[in-house]
Write a structure and sequence with these properties.
single chain; 100 residues; alpha+beta; 37% helix; globular
C-alpha cells in the first residue's frame, strides 16, 4: 500500500472520541485506490487487533455487549473519507510500522 492515508488525533467534536483517540483517514484523491488501501488496512487490523464493527454500530452496542475497544471503522460519506479509528498510540505505532 502506498501512503494514501493521514493519521489524525480525534477531538471532542468527533463521534469516536473519547473511546478512540486516533484516526487513520484515507485520501479521496483516487477513490478506487483509497478503497483498495482502506480494505487492505482493515484486513490487517482485523488480523492483528481482532474482529470489529463500524463506528455507528459500535456506539449502539457499547453498553450492551462486548465490543472490540481497540479499533473500529467508518465508511466514506459525503463529508468524511474512509476512516479506521484506533484506541491509542500503541495501535497507531503498530499500524505505522506496517504501512510506512
Amino acid at each position: 500500500m502506498r501512503r494514501s492515508f493521514k493519521v489524525k488525533k480525534t477531538s471532542v467534536q468527533w463521534n469516536a472520541n473519547p473511546h478512540f483517540l486516533y484516526c487513520i483517514e484515507f485520501d479521496r484523491i483516487s477513490y478506487h485506490q483509497a478503497v483498495e488501501d482502506f480494505n487492505t488496512a482493515m484486513t490487517w487490523c482485523w488480523e492483528n487487533f481482532g474482529a470489529s464493527i463500524d463506528l455507528q454500530s459500535w456506539k449502539a452496542l457499547l453498553k450492551s455487549t462486548d465490543v472490540n475497544t481497540v479499533w473500529c471503522w467508518e465508511n466514506q460519506t459525503t463529508v468524511h473519507a474512509n476512516r479506521i479509528y484506533l484506541a491509542s498510540s500503541k495501535e497507531v505505532d503498530a499500524f505505522l510500522l506496517r504501512w510506512n
